[in-house]
């Protein structure tokens, strides 16, 4: 099947719970919903903390630092708009064990990828009529900052 | 631990097997394939449709992904004019065989006596004509796609489906335990050796290790031959109340124990440990429900939608230790039909087609009955471990000819 020439872009649907996450990058911040009573980060965001059932929740920025939990180098054009090969990564946010994001690892030669390596967030701005979003991507720690 | 000898499993047996034609793209009405399998299963048991008073299927009515289901519960109940005392369908369950576990519970609860269970797919035809509908929205058209729900955390990063999600587990597991690519290859090679003697298998020509390494890399560490093949086909079982099973047409295959547990988040990327499938929770539960142990297993039929799921399941089912699946399958002799633990003797989904979980239980029953023909394992097995699913949807069961 020949790929259409029209670019395709996938953007998240925004709602009140998810908008701060997807738009935090405007200020360069990686933002998660957090329980103000027990400190637990809720991801994906939900209305009640599963640890202490608190509804006292607010979005808070984290450091943007993470470790690479796993990765996969993709040689197949699953979706248009991704230049091959591209790296899908699972990163574990340093602020909480098993708080992970599925993301892309960028600015890293394939041979240099190591599970456990330190990574930091970098945002990709996507303009959209329903509200701009900033995708949190990750690069090796100390790469550009 | 006390074993409950009156558990629902002990009230049940599989009494009928049915399978439609299977093909890459049969281009036939999926309801026809489904009914072929269902009527065959009922006849195999020596029953009539009017004897069936329960029905269970995975996943039930779903319009997307295209071809994911060939018929709903209502489609089959109506087409066969069934009058049932209990029925159910659903996609949120412990793997594709969750529909069978529910049938077992229904019989154990006294809600039905003969439950028809089926799984029907026509992904081969559906995806052949409509693009890769199973991977991402829109079938590859241009424009802006809005991803909601759980897909919003995946699609914007090109994490477009299960091949990638499983690859992430695989990479983490290989990195932690040092599993080698040539060890992983044995899952695909073993499947192809078995498919060669399964007349219904999709891919039957021999595969060498060189062939495996020549297949293109899809999503590291998974190559094309680590991914199963979409197909058209349907599989059905009759699960019967055990005391009614003895008088039927074929020797019963008894249900010994089942496992449905998930003690982790029902998520692909927020699991506590990426190198351990939640199937391990189901397996712990299963082994806690039977006096049998992993050492009693004569044969394993284990989900291979992607080869690495089989590796993780071997560990989850305690057929080898954590991290030992690479050494366990090394060289392929142990898992061959004449080996200590024959594995995926019909070829698995990698070579025989993505019948989506049901194919493994079907093959376990075929082998336990000694009906495997050219692919029958030399010493007819008495106990089979069957596992289906991956990621956040896993379940397993033990079936046996020993009452």
Summarize this entry quickly.
The complex is a heterodimer of chains A (145) and B (403). With 145 residues, chain A is mainly β. Chain A has one helix and nine strands, in the order E-H-E-E-E-E-E-E-E-E.
What does this structure look like?
The complex is a heterodimer of chains A (145) and B (403). Chain A is mostly beta strands. In chain A, 3% of the residues lie in helices and 41% in strands. In chain A, the strands form 2 sheets. In chain A, strands 7-6-5-8-9 form a 5-stranded antiparallel beta sheet. Chain A has a 3-stranded antiparallel beta sheet with strand order 3-2-4. In chain A, a hairpin with a 5-residue loop joins strand 2 and strand 3. Chain B contains 13 helices and 12 strands. Chain B has 403 residues and is α/β, with parallel strands linked by helices. Chain B is globular, with a radius of gyration of 20 Å. Chain B has a 9-stranded mixed beta sheet, sandwiched between helices. In chain B, strands 6-7 form a two-stranded antiparallel sheet. Chain B has one domain: 3-Layer(aba) Sandwich (Peroxisomal Thiolase, Chain A, domain 1), CATH 3.40.47.10. The interface between A and B is large, with 44 and 46 residues.
Query: Strand share of the residues of chain B?
Result: 15-25%
H-E string of chain B = EHEHEHEHEHHHEEEHEHEHHHHEE
Share of β-strand residues of chain A: 35-45%
Portion in helices of chain B: 25-40%
Shape of chain B: globular
Q: Return the CATH topology of chain B.
A: Peroxisomal Thiolase, Chain A, domain 1
- Major sheet details of chain A: 5 strands, antiparallel
Based on the structure, what is the oligomeric state of the protein chains?
A: heterodimer
- How many helical stretches of chain A? 1
The main pleated sheet of chain B reads as: 9 strands, mixed
Question: Order of strands across the biggest sheet of chain A?
Answer: 7-6-5-8-9
- Helical amount of chain A: under 10%
CATH top level label of chain B: Alpha Beta
């Amino acid at each position: 099947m020949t790929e259409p020439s029209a670019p395709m872009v996938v953007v998240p649907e925004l709602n009140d719970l998810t908008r701060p996450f997807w738009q935090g990058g405007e200020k360069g911040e990686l933002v998660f919903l957090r329980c103000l009573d027990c400190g637990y980060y809720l991801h994906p965001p939900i209305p009640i903390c599963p640890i202490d059932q608190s509804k006292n929740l607010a979005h808070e920025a984290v450091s943007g630092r993470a470790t690479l939990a796993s990765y996969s180098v993709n040689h197949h054009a699953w979706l248009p708009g991704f230049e091959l090969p591209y790296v899908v990564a699972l990163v574990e946010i340093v602020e909480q064990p098993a708080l992970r994001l599925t993301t892309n690892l960028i600015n890293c030669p394939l041979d240099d990828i190591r599970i456990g390596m330190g990574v930091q967030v970098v945002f990709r701005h996507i303009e959209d009529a329903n509200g701009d979003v900033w995708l949190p991507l990750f690069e090796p720690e100390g790469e550009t900052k | 631990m006390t074993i409950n000898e009156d558990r629902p499993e002990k009230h049940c047996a599989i009494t009928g097997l049915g399978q439609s034609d299977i093909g890459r793209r049969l281009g036939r009405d999926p309801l026809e394939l489904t009914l072929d399998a269902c009527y065959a299963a009922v006849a195999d048991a020596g029953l009539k449709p009017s004897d069936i008073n329960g029905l269970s299927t995975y996943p039930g009515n779903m319009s997307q992904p295209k071809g994911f289901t060939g018929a709903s519960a209502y489609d089959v109940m109506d087409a066969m004019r069934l009058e049932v005392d209990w029925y159910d369908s659903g996609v949120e369950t412990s793997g594709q065989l969750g529909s069978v576990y529910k049938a077992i519970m229904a019989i154990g609860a006294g809600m039905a006596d003969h439950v028809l269970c089926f799984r029907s797919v026509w992904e081969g035809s559906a995806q052949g004509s409509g693009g890769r509908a199973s991977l991402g929205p829109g079938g590859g058209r241009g424009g802006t796609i809005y991803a909601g729900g759980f897909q919003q955390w995946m699609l914007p990063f090109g994490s477009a489906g299960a091949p990638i999600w499983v690859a992430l587990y695989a990479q983490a597991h290989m990195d932690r335990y040092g599993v080698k690519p040539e060890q992983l290859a044995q899952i695909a090679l073993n499947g192809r050796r078995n498919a060669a003697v399964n007349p219904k298998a999709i891919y039957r020509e021999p595969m060498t290790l060189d062939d495996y390494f020549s297949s293109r890399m899809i999503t590291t560490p998974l190559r094309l031959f680590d991914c199963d093949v979409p197909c058209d086909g349907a599989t059905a079982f009759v699960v019967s109340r055990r005391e009614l099973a003895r008088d039927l047409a074929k020797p019963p295959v008894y249900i010994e124990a089942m496992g449905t547990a998930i003690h982790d988040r029902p998520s692909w990327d927020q699991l506590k440990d990426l190198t351990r499938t939640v199937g391990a929770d189901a397996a712990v539960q299963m082994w806690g429900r039977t006096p049998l142990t992993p050492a009693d297993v004569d044969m394993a039929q284990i989900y291979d939608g992607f080869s690495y799921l089989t590796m993780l399941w071997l560990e989850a089912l305690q057929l080898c230790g954590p991290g030992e699946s690479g050494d366990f399958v090394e060289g392929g002799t142990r898992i061959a039909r004449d080996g200590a633990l024959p594995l995926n003797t019909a070829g698995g989904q990698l070579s025989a087609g993505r019948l989506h979980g049901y194919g493994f239980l079907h093959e376990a029953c075929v082998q336990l009955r000694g009906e495997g023909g050219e692919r029958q394992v030399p010493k007819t097995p008495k106990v089979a471990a069957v596992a289906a699913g991956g990621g956040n949807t896993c379940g397993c069961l033990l079936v046996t000819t020993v009452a």
